[in-house]
Sequence to fold (333 residues):
Amino acid sequence: MFRLRRLTLFIVLLASACSQKPSVDSISEPSSPAPAISITLTPLSTFTPHPTFSLANTALPATPVSQPTLGKTPQVPFGLTFDQINPIFYGKIFLGATSGDIWLYPREVYPLLGNAQVYDFYDQNFQPFPTTVVVPEPRTEGAHQCDFLDFKFVDPGIGDVSPVLGVKPGQSVTFRPVQTIAQDSGLYEQYLQEWLVLQGVSSPELGVVKVLRVDLEGDAVDEVILVATNIEDSMGGLHEAGAGKYSVVLMRKVIGAQVYTVPLVVEIYYATDSKMEYPIIYDVDHIYDLNGDGNLEIILSGRWWEGGGLFVHEVHELNAVRVLDLICGWDPR
Fold:
């Protein structure tokens, strides 16, 4: 008996051999997704999928298309200054920073932040407001520490605002609409069932939690992100996991005439008897452009017994790389 965790495994799904351009759902969809905009979102029209035929999963590839980056990034490069980093404030936490293509952890760049600084924040309507914040010195001892850090608004009257994102003044920010699709669609339940069977889960108990539709890369082709789990969010469920229990986040992506499945996180348990596995239940927290490159990052949340975390994934075509791995509390891994 063993526990198998696959952080990435790509399964090629062949699209139907027809002359029309395939859609991410293998069904008829709007031909022009909502365009990228800088600040104000344009509402999407209502979209409800209506499957027309069964999905056909192909066999597992011999090797993954790409390998994710695991673990922490290196320490801050020698000589790096505040002017060379782009801090990221996510909700009401300091998430980290980027410097070019490098993602940096909060505690690595904290010494560069200095005193209070002015940043551009965005509210829940994606409207900008400049304000001054300070990041207090992080704790260095004690139980249940967090990899991400708190920050404080300095300007009066800002404390009640619920920001979604904060960046350096002038940094480009792209927001695109994220659409929730009915998770009880037979299309996605069938898709999940076939995928789980290919992973060796016979007669899987289906648990589609969330289905999202979004254009991650601004290429006018939408991706579909599926969140599924059959692990109970209870004391017993967060302690033990036996055969057939799972928590997965999958991305379906169209490239050319093929539909690919890109696993973002995979937790599948095969042990016949339930064991004290302390399973992780994953979800999509938000999808934002964190580093200002015009592509949207997928921010996953995870919760487990006496802990939780945020996991940032950067997507370029079929490459889904975990660039930040932020834990708060006990780490069961």
